[in-house]
Amino acid sequence: MTNKQQAALEQASAGPGLFFGMELLGWYRSVKRDLPWRENRDPYRVWVSEIMLQQTRVDTVIPYYKRFMDKFPTIRHLAEAPEEEVLKCWEGLGYYSRARNLQAGAQQVVSEYGGSVPDDKTAVAALKGVGPYTAGAIMSIAFNRPEPAVDGNVMRVLSRYFCLEDDIAKPSVRTGIERIAAALIPEGAAGDFNQGIMELGALICTPKSPGCLICPVMAECAGRLAGRELELPVKTKAKPPRPELRLAALVEGAGPHAGAILVRQRPESGLLARMWELPHVLAPGGGSAGPVAAGSAAAAGPVRGRRRSTAALDAPAAAGEAAASPGANREARMALMGRALAEEARLLIRPRRWWRDAEHVFSHIRWDLQVYLADFGFVLKDAASAGGTQAGAYTGLAAEQPAAYMAGSGETAEAAQRETAASYDHAGLPLASAALVDRLPEGYRWIRQDDMKEMAFPNVFLRLLNDYWEQRESGCLPDEAEAE
DNA sequence: AAACCGTGGCA
DNA sequence: TTGCCAAGGTT
C-alpha cells in the first residue's frame, strides 16, 4: 500500500470511517432505486445481475435482466439450456463471454453444489466469470458477508473521500482500495453498504459533475474539502482502438435461395465468439494504412458509369485515407473482397455495387465496414477434393480462357461436381467454370428474416440486416430503384 | 502488466 | 462530433 492508502486505512477503521458508513447507509436506505434484481436476495438473481452489470449501465441491463430471468428462472434452467438460446438472450449486451461463463458457472453449481450457490467466498470466486468484484458483491448482497466489492464507482468515491492520488487504472491499486473498503463496512450491513457506495457513485459522486452539495458524506470528504473532487480519481487514458477496414458482402441468393442472404457463424473463441455475421474480410493495410491494394486499383480498369448522387456517400470510412480518394477504390475493394472470400472460404461471389458504410467500435478495435451487395456464384471444392486445381485458381489475372462468368443461381451451384479449373479476372470474378460443390462452406448458411429470431448477431450486423430487409420490402434498395 | 473482450449514452 | 466511460474478467 502507498502511504496515502495506509493513512486512509487507519482513518477508515476510526472516526471518519464510522461516519462514512453510517451516513451512507442512511442515505442508501432512503433513496435506493427500485431495481428488478432488488426484489429479493436470491443468490442466483444477484449473480445474474452482477454479471450483466459488468461494464454495463443499469438502464441497459434492466430489459435484458427481465427477459433472462423470465427465460431462465433457476440455475437449473440456465444450466440445461441450449447455448444458442443463452447467447440469443445476451444479443446486443456485449462481452458475450459473460454469457458462456455464466452458463458454465450454473453448470458448476448444479454439479458441485446441488444447484444452490454456496455461501462460501472461495467457492463463489472459483465460478467461471466471477472475479474479485463479483465474488464480493454476491457474498455481501446475497449472504450479507462482510466482503468488499470494489468496482469503478467504489474506486472513484474512495479516491475522492480520502483524496487518494493513485492511478486507479493500475490493477495493483484496486487491492489497496479493497482493504480500505473492507474496513468501512458497518457491522451486519455489508450488502446495503456495498450497494450504497455504488449507488452513491452512480447517482451523486459521478465522474464529471459530482453532486457534492447533496452528498451524504460531503462534510468529511477530503477530496471535496481540498477542492479537488474534479481532479480525482487519477486514471490514465485507455489506448484508442485501432482502425480496421473491413469489406462485407451482402450476398443475395437466387433460384431456390431467392430472397435469402448469406451469413456465417464466427469461431468458438475470440471476438464475438459463435455469433453470426455477414461474410467480410480485412482489407490489407488495415484501416489507416492509406490506399488499399493500390495495385489492384490500378488494374481494375475504368469505373462503371453508375455513380452515387451524393459525394458524401463515398467519403472514406477509414481514417487516414486520402479524402480525394476516388470512387475507383470501391471497385478495387469489391474485387479484393471477391478474391479474399474465394481464398478464405472457397466462396465465389460477384460483388455488384457498394451499398453503405457502417462503423462498429469495440474496446480495442474499430471496424470501418463497407458493405457491398453481391450475387452468389458458386462454391469451389475444397483443396483436398479439388485435387490440386487450387494452385492456379486465384492467380488467373492473365487468364488464358475467355471470360465466361457463371451467373449466380442456385441451379449453378447445385449442378455441382464439374471438374474444371477456375480462374478470375481482374475484378475478382470467376472465369470459366470451376470445380463445384453443392454445399456451402463450413459455418455458412442462407437465412431469411424469420431465421434471425433464433440466431445471435452483433448489433452492427443486426442493424444492417434489419435495414436491408426493410429496404428490400419497400423497394428502396439502390439497384432495384435504378434498374427500372 | 497489458491486451483482449461490446455497446450505448452523454457532454 | 468526438471522446469518455460504465456494477470487470480472463489470459
TrEMBL record:
Name all HhH-GPD domain ranges.
52-203
Q: Name one Pfam family in it.
A: HhH-GPD
> Which Gene3D superfamilies does its entry note?
Helix-hairpin-Helix base-excision DNA repair enzymes (C-terminal), Hypothetical protein, domain 2, Nucleoside Triphosphate Pyrophosphohydrolase
Known EC number: 3.2.2.31
**Keyword check for 4Fe-4S:** yes
Q: Where is the composition biased (Low complexity)?
A: 311-325
Which reaction is recorded as catalysed by this protein? Hydrolyzes free adenine bases from 7,8-dihydro-8-oxoguanine:adenine mismatched double-stranded DNA, leaving an apurinic site
In terms of InterPro entries, this protein maps to: A/G_AdeGlyc_MutY, DNA_glycosylase, Endouclease-III_FeS-bd_BS, HhH-GPD_domain, HhH_base_excis_C, MIG/MutY, NUDIX_hydrolase-like_dom_sf
Region of interest (Disordered), ranges: 305-325
> Looking at its record, which EC class is this enzyme?
hydrolase
Give the protein's biological function.
Adenine glycosylase active on G-A mispairs. MutY also corrects error-prone DNA synthesis past GO lesions which are due to the oxidatively damaged form of guanine: 7,8-dihydro-8-oxoguanine (8-oxo-dGTP).
Q: Spell out the NCBIfam families in the cross-references.
A: mutY (TIGR01084)
Protein name as catalogued: Adenine DNA glycosylase
Q: Which organism is it from?
A: Paenibacillus sambharensis
